[in-house]
Structure formats: structure tokens, C-alpha cells
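INFO worker-7 received task bundle
INFO bundle size: 2
INFO processing item 0
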Amino acid sequence: MRQSNKLSGAKVRTADAGKFGDGGGLWLHKRDARQGKWVLLVTVHGRRREMGLGAYPGVSLKEAREEAEKWRAVVRRNLDPIKERERERRQAERNLNLLKDISLDAFESRKAELKGDGKAGRWYSPLELHVLPKLGKVPVADIDQIDIRDTLAPIWHEKAETASKAMDRLGICLKHAAALGLDVDLQATMKARALLGKQRHKPKNIPALPWPDVPSFYASLNEGTTSHLALRLLILTAVRSGPVRKAHEDQFEGGVWTIPAEIIKGRRDATEDFRIPLSDAALDVIEAAKKQSRDGFLFPSVRKGVISDATMSRLMERRELEARPHGFRSSFRDWVAETTNTPHEVAETCLGHVVGGTVERAYRRTDHLDQRRILMQRWADFVTTKQADIVRIG
């Protein structure tokens, strides 16, 4: 057995220029008294290999010995240590670009485009729940259509909408990776869709209470609690639950509720605030809610913040109703269609929907506030059991 550990710390520090062996193939090549490099000489597959282990004094004698033993062990497995080190380097580089890291970077870069900077997590959650558990630790350059197909196949038909969102987000991540200069297959998601086939699942509409039944349900919300008042305002205004839950006293002025653009959902042009004309009944609900507001929010939760998204839904569940709060928007829209002659653009604007193309909207800049005020008052009259005959909103 060849002698090893021939060198000492003092010898290494004081040696002049030259080559000094430590044994076992480890050598120190000194250019001068202060600088040098460590070299490991090995024979693999009958071929002599010279492997650099780092510069001296940056790499100490102890560190050089540990590194040398690591690569000797590789040689004992009949592997080329230089090729193995290069393979490890490439793998390390690939690991810096795992899908989980790319997806977070893509999310961060798009926060400004998302409502509330994406704090609700709706953009990221399809990836987080259905893609990253399987592909998160895979280098993004390695992901192909087979990986994507196998990952989304379990939910492709059963949770079609979620699966489509996950596929779309994954496509954005691949484009983001390409923009970073990584070698990815930008057509991988398109190929995966072809492999998965057309989705069989048909989306279900949120159950809605038939509009003739709305007045009796509204009348039952008579306890003056936070959830009762919130549901009453939601019904009277046909607004989504989010803006209702986050309603703040500062948003109401002169019979108009102005919803900030950042909490408006479903509007492609949601760069402007959205105005809601308030009926007499809605104003009464708001005044009642102000008496129990906290920090200006009309519908505070018991502990902190505002009531949750599930608060109103659970109230309806406890009453064994299939309908959900969001369904009152459908109830309102059906009432409009069946009992009034309201123009389409007025009715759709009441729901905060965008009507017409970009050019048409550029020329038609009205939000039909006065016409909507008449319609919302008639709806409130119907809901509160006052006379509400068929009316023309011209």
C-alpha cells in the first residue's frame, strides 16, 4: 500500500515552487512560495487522468485530502471522476431551474397584473395543488408532454376547469423559462392537450334561487346580524360576494356605491372603479350595517377582518337550500329578462359584465347609471314585496 498523508501543513506553507506528493495520487503543484494548485492523478479504464482539485491556498491540505478521497471512491466504482464531476455540475445547474422555482418566479413577475397582487392565490393554486406535487422538483427543461399528460390526467375530466387552468399556468411557466434563456419545449402543453383529448366534463352553473322565491327568502333575513345584512345587500345590488364582504363606508356616497377596480372580478377593463346605484332598501341596509361596522368595514368578522367567503353560503346550507349567494345574480338576471324590457347592455352592466368589443367600448363610454338606478329600484321593490310591474327601461 502506497504511503499517504506525506505532507504537513508546515511543509505546504513553506515549500518553494515545485511538485510535492501527499500520497495516493494527490499532488501539490506550487508556482511559487505562496500559490499553487492541487492535482489528483488516477488511472481509470487503463487511462491516466489528471484531475484538478482547486487552487492553493484557497483549498487547504485537509480539504484537498477529503476531495481526493471522494474521487478515489468514484474510481473504485470503475467510473471516470472527471466525467462524473461534469455530470454532477450539469445536474446542479439543472436543479437551479426546477419547475417549482420557475413557477414562483413567473408568479412574482405577474403579480402586478393580478387582482390584489394575487394575494388570494387563485392564479398559483392550480399549479400548487395539481402540478407541483408531481413535477415541482423536475428541471423545467426536462418536462415534456408525457409528464404533463400523466400529471393532469386524473383531473382532466373530473375537474375540467381546474385542469385547464393548471395547463394554462404551466404554459406560462414554460414561456417564462424560455424568456430566461432555458431550453424548454414551448409546445409541450399543446401536445399534452392532444394526448389528453377533449374534456367530457360540463361545467355546472352555481345553483340559483328562482326569482319568484327571492322575496320570501329576503324577508327571512330579518335578524339584523352581519350575515343577514350582507346577504340582503348582495341580493339588492346583484354584486358578487367579494365586494359585499369588503364593503367599506368610504365607498358609499350620494346614493352610489363605488367599488374599487382592484376588487372587481370578471371585467377585462377593470382599470376603473365600478359604480352601483343604490335603491332605497339598499341604503337602509347600509345604514343598519354601519351601526356594527369595525374599522369602517360594514361586515366585520367576529375576530378580525371581514366575514369569510363561506359565511353567507353556510347560512343557506343550514336552511337546506341548494342555491348559493352567487346565484342571486342569476335570479336578478332572469327577473330582468322575464319581467322587463331592459336593453341588453343595461342589464349586463348591472352585473358588472363587459359588453361589446374594444372599439365599441371606446365610443360608448357611459355606464348607464341613471337607467340602472331605475331598474335596481324596481328590483328592490319586487324583493321587498312592493309593487313591481313590468317596466320598460329605455
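INFO item 0 finished
INFO processing item 1
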Amino acid sequence: MRKREYLDTTQDISFKFFQTPDDFMVDEVMCTEFKGKGNYLIIHVKKVELTTWDMVAIFAEYFGIPAQKIGYAGLKDKHATTTQYISVDASYEKMLKKFHHKQIKILKTIRHSHSIRMGDLCGNRFSINLHFVDNIDSGKIEKCARKIAKNGLPNYFGYQRFGRDNDSIKQAEEMIKGEIFIEDTKIKNFLISIYQSTFFNDWLRERVELSREKNDGKFLLLDGDVYQDNKGDLSTPKIMPTREFESKKLVPTGLLCGRDTFRARDEAREIEKKYDDEFLQEKGYRREALIYPKDIECKYIRKETKLKISFTLPKGSYATVFLESIANKNYTAKDVKPKIKQK
């Protein structure tokens, strides 16, 4: 897998961040306004050092129900403090009052007419502590973050998507070629997503490099690009929609290869086809090439040489990619693992 490149590479900014419960906080932003009545109970939970699946398994065991009976909208990091919403049948409301777990806190409950489904969230609000930041770099970080929010962030899949090393990518390629057989459906779907994501990231890298070369670091639109509007609808306009792009009404998309999805045309297709597997039988998708971080807030604590940066991203996007773009470097899981102090 090739290095993730970014649109603005004019300066390097020095900081460290760690994926720990104290330094990495994520709050789910839901699209739905819960009605306050209905046959389902919506539970707003805060969890620490647990994956979403871990948390769901804990509730499933407590209620004595299959994990599939618990609804959730998105998957959250383990090494973080995160809040998210889950749903269960309202008949478990009384039982929930006695629930206790040292890594899970129930913040609020409310009734609703239907269960939460995967993808129901609008985005996530991140609050991340950046360490070893001096006063000058603090200002640079905020300035850079706001510039990215204006011009757009390349919507790469972050390092978390691909596992701890590149073995998963190799395994995915071998499975697609038929060289190995994977029986477990969950693992198979995971490997397919890695296969599609690798192609997408490599396509996006080429488009970013082209934009830096020919468009002064602003994302370069090409004839035949496929665009997504604010409702999620896709189109391939005959005339390049520059004005709609600049007003953020339309955003260009990249291909997650597979069947039953739009392909680009003309000039855009010449690049896209290098990162397409037209024989892949799984469902294909389009993914926004750019996203726009919102509601950026920065608070600098001079005594601790720490900057707390908060921002909101659309669902499916990676906070670590935003930080990579600011730092002008790629991160791995090893980079964000805190060093254990020697006794």
C-alpha cells in the first residue's frame, strides 16, 4: 500500500498524539431525533477501552439475548473514550436500571419507534489532545486545520482499516484470486473491504498528486467525474460543476470496486480504471473523495505543551487522516501507542 499524500504540503508541524481514553475522545452525532415514545429503548452510553462489539456482547449477555437484537449505528475505537447510541426492545427498560459495568456508563435513555440501524449516524465529534506542542506550532495547527476545512480533506481510509500490518492486504488479494478459501463470513467481508479500500486509497493518492501538480494544491476536477450531492445521490454531469463543487453542493467521488455501481467516464475513467477490478462479484460503492471538517475548536494549554483540538467529521471518515494532513506525515498503529513508563 502506497503512502497517503495530502493537498497542502508546505510545512511540517511537530506534535504527538496517542490513542488512549484520556487523549482520544469520540462522540457519536446521530441524524435521528428520538421521539420519546415507542417499542424500543435508545441507550446513550459512554464506554472506555472497549470496542463496540465488546460493549454489545456485554449488554447481550446481561439481557440474555443474541447480540443481533441490539442495534447500533457505527463502530467506535477501543483505545479511546467514546459515546454512542444502542437500542434494545423496550421490555428490558426495568432490567437496565440494575446494569453496572466498570467500563460502561449509561448517560441517558429514551423511547423510540424503531431500532437503531448501522449507518444511522451523521458523523462523529472528536476531541484529541496533541502533545509536545509549542506556542508557535499551536497557531500553525489551528491555521492549517481551518484551511483544510475550507479546501477539503482527502477522504482516505486510515491505517486502522488495514489491520496491524500488510498481511491482511496480501490475504485479501489471495482470497480474491481464489488462491485461498475463507469460510468465515465476517472475515471474508473484512478482507473484501480491505481490497476495495486499498484500490480507493491508491486512486485518491494519484488524484491528489495530480491536483498538487496542476491545480496549486486544490482538488482538480476531471471530465467524467462522478459526484455526490448532499442527499447522497450520484450523477455524472455533462458540464463540469465547478460552482456547485466550490459551494460544497457536489463532491467528487472515488470507486470502491464491485458490481452495480457508477463508473467514471472520459478523462476521470482513465485514472479510475487503473484501480478497478471489474470482475469482483461483491457490491461496489462510491466514496466521497473529499470531506470538510466542521466546528473546529482549539484550546492551547501552555504549561502542559498540549493543544486540545475538537472537530466533527462525516461518518466513515478518519480523525487520524485529518491529523496526518496537518502533520504532513503518515501514522501507523505503533506511532499512536503510548510509551509505557519504566518503573
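INFO item 1 finished
INFO post-check item 1: The chain has a mean pLDDT of 93.
INFO post-check item 1: The radius of gyration is 21 Å.
INFO worker-7 idle
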